[in-house]
Known about the structure:
TIM Barrel, 8-stranded parallel sheet, globular, YggS family pyridoxal phosphate-dependent enzyme, single chain, 40% helix, alpha/beta
Amino acid sequence: MTEIAAKLARLHNRIAAAAARSGRIADAVRLVLVTKTVAPDRVREAIHAGQTDLGENKVQEGGKKAEALAGEPVSWSMIGHLQSNKVKDVLKFAAEVQSLDRLSLAAALNKRLQFLGRNLDVLVQVNTSNEASKYGLTPEAVPAFLKELTAFETLRPQGFMTLARFTPDETEVRRCFRVLREIRDRALNDAPQGEALHHLSMGMSGDYETAIEEGATIVRVGQAVFGPRPLPDSHYWPDATSHTG
Length: 245
């Protein structure tokens, strides 16, 4: 077993244990393995160890990596902030966008998807930490946004995504996750999409177990498998909010 395969196995075990603590089975939580800055050959090791659900933060990097791994049985999710002018490129490889945060992006995606004759699973990003540095809707804006989304027939909203505040204060981290869970629970009853809005994408390498305990159905984890990146996020993306996995 390679080092990556061993770390992946340990990660799955910890996900299963956290799911059990929340009264669920391991299969109730989907792992999106974050591959940002990771070379394709190392990603391929994880694929060969059974991980086929991958996530990227940047369109250009994701496109190149998808090309390098063409032929592998993988599905790509866009998990970082998405500019409307990158829609054409992201739809070349991504089967899901977890960072839908504005109507202009929904319109751009819908237009391109209509041209392609396909649909797209999306998650609505919510800024539960109320930090100006983070993308996402305010919690209060979510109900109206979901109503507006019904105009875009190619988009299939599946739930919500958030990033908790980066802090050692577990109470605050849990609060962020609980805010998203409460938004989801209200939406299941009140939103036009109803029961389709089941998923909660929350939790990364530093807090995924807490997120699962608070109801996450999707976690976005990379460094727990691939190790820390050699340089800080600001080196790779000097103009972007961190989406550390």
